[in-house]
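Pasting as-is:
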Amino acid sequence: DTEVAIWGAGHQALAILSFLKMLNKIKYVIDSAPFKQGRFTPVTHLPIVSPQKLISDPVDAVIIMAGSYSEEIAKMVSEKFKGTIEIRILNENCLKR
């Protein structure tokens, strides 16, 4: 089974998570803000973790939902993990590479 992480615990990402039909595939939600880490997402109850979790507990894919920071995050994950993690950015109404 493919394990997925969501990057972004902002209000838009959390709203989208509440409608997803693939919650059983999502392992955790990543957010760089320390005050969000160690908590759980509302409605879906997924753990919110630091970016370091990708190293200690890797996933197969990351879906980035971080608004204007999405491209920057995608670049960082791509450089750090050298193609071992699939990366997609949720933009408006589609997932893009």
